[in-house]
Design brief:
By secondary structure, this protein is of the alpha+beta class. It has one domain. It is 41% helix and 26% strand. A hairpin with a 2-residue loop joins β2 and β3.
Length: 150
């Protein structure tokens, strides 16, 4: 996958995150063909490719559409091997209409608590290069490699 396509997807996800994905008035805006579905679909494709670009040996992408009036969330659990991995989630906070990318270290694909949550707010995502995002997340792999070597 080209970096330019992932960069484009990152921009599209940002634009969706700053719109009202939980809109429930009038037409079925967030219904099966609305912005909410577009957010879930594009974010899942983005995270699948991100997992490949990060070199995960195992990974799982989940889409949770949640209920009305919320955006839902898309998450990636990825492992580099051993007990070294990362959890990534993209979601929107309805009360602020801003999206965030959450990430943290995990020790297995079933690690639902993991390490300390870290956030990249939508304002940071807006101007971020895809390669920079990969660099930030790959530091977690290096931290795990050092931890396992000790």
């Amino acid at each position: 996958m080209s970096l330019s396509l992932q960069q484009k997807r990152l921009g599209e996800i940002y634009n969706l995150l700053i719109s009202d994905l939980g809109y429930i008035y009038g037409d079925r805006e967030t219904g099966p063909n609305g912005k909410k579905k577009e957010f879930l679909t594009k974010s899942a494709a983005f995270l699948r490719q991100l997992g490949k670009d990060l070199g995960f040996t195992e990974m799982r992408v989940n889409k949770n559409p949640a209920g009305i009036a919320v955006s839902g969330e898309v998450s990636l659990y990825g492992m580099w091997g051993g007990d070294n991995g990362v959890f990534i989630e993209i979601c929107q906070f309805t009360y602020t209409l801003s999206g965030d990318l959450l990430y943290r270290e995990i020790k297995s694909l079933k690690d639902y608590t993991g390490g300390q949550n870290q956030w990249l707010p939508s304002e940071v995502i807006r101007g971020m290069q895809y390669s920079r995002l990969c660099d930030i997340l790959l530091k977690l792999k290096q931290n795990g490699d050092r931890r396992n070597a000790a």
